[in-house]
From TrEMBL:
Boundaries of every EAL domain copy: 24-280
Organism this protein belongs to: Vreelandella rituensis
Top-rank taxon, per record: Bacteria
Protein's name in the database: EAL domain-containing protein
Length: 294
């Protein structure tokens, strides 16, 4: 009897794997079509705000894929497929183009944008000619390098520190800023962090989530990363902030920037444009127009 169940369980398992493999293959084919034809892809923008003033200071660009039949698919689902298949290279270029195109549009409309962070997969980062692509796209859209930053995870640089540092240095010499994403979940040693030419640490959502809970030591990691950021002169961002309580606690740890549902979900470009225009800015478009006409 047990043997019988065991065999059934095995069959079920096998079947799952087959379904999974087929799904991935289908998704890869669909994604390839999407990348080639360019429709169905869109960027969402999520606000990063100053913990001290609440002001909008930056944005993270997050890729959205509207699948022709399945609807919206999460990047956590399709980015791994893109990475495995190599599609991440043309897809990443599309992301760069969409973000730079958006920044160009804002500037043409007289709207002062905030710096926009772009996520990089390891494969993109290590792709030969990646920096040349960045330079070419920046110049095509006439966007300053300081208008964008790149986010990469610790694992991207794993085992290849020296070469990685070289690429990071070149990006920063251009004027682009660099953030380490999901910090605390990877395997990088702290001494190695000291060597990295980066600007920002983003504390992973998993450490924000437990803040204020009962578990002993909650906050200890945030406190440690905060100390590290201060010593290394890095900007510190907390990801995944959903409650006022978390916001308050993060203040006691001197976290400078907040990103999370509390201060804004990822939103389409029209909604983010509204958010940009709602800022109390020194150079509002109408003021600019008035100044030039007087
Ligand atoms: P990430 O770079 O760590 O992005 C943050 C993720 O956390 C986003 O998920 C965002 O929607 C979500 N998030 C933000 N605030 C909150 C919050 O308060 N609570 C919760 N529960 N979640 C929050 P999203 O957009 O689904 O993206 C998932 C991941 O996919 C990203 O994680 C990033 O690693 C990857 N990704 C997204 N866009 C791109 C892209 O253009 N290129 C590459 N290579 N990867 C991308
Ligand atoms: Mg990110
Ligand atoms: Mg993150
Ligand atoms: Mg992530």
């Amino acid at each position: 009897r047990a043997k019988q169940e065991g065999r059934n369980a095995y069959r079920l398992y096998r079947c799952d794997i087959d379904v999974q493999a087929r799904d991935h293959l289908t998704m890869e084919t669909d994604l390839r079509n999407t990348v080639e034809h360019g429709d169905g892809l869109e960027m969402a923008y999520q606000p990063l705000v100053s913990r001290q003033t609440g002001a909008l200071v930056s944005a993270e660009a997050l890729l959205r894929w509207h699948h022709p039949t399945r609807g919206l698919i999460s990047p956590d689902e399709f980015i791994p497929v893109a990475e495995r298949s190599g599609l991440i290279i043309p897809l990443g270029e599309r992301v760069l183009e969409m973000v730079l195109g958006q920044i160009r549009t804002w500037q043409d409309q007289g709207i002062q944008p905030v710096p926009v962070a772009i996520n990089l997969s390891a494969r993109q980062f290590w792709q030969e000619g990646f920096i040349d692509t960045v330079i070419a796209k920046l110049s095509h859209y006439k966007v300053a390098p300081s208008a964008i930053s790149f986010e990469l995870t610790e694992s991207t640089l794993l085992n290849k520190q020296a070469q990685g540092i070289e690429i990071l240095q070149r990006l920063r010499q251009l004027g682009c800023r660099i953030a380490i994403d999901d910090f605390g979940t990877g395997y990088s040693s702290l001494s190695y962090l000291q060597e990295l030419p980066i600007d920002t640490l983003k504390i992973d959502r998993s450490f924000t989530r437990t803040l204020g809970g009962e578990k002993r030591g909650n906050g200890a990691i945030v406190a440690a990363v905060s100390g590290l950021a201060r010593e290394l002169d890095l900007c510190l961002v907390a990801e995944g902030v959903e409650t006022q309580e978390q916001w308050d606690i993060l203040g006691t740890y001197q976290v400078e920037m907040i990103q999370g549902f509390l201060t804004g979900h990822p939103m389409n470009s029209d909604d983010f444009t509204q958010r940009l225009m709602a800022r109390p800015s020194k150079v509002l478009p109408y003021q600019k127009a008035r100044n030039t006409s007087s």
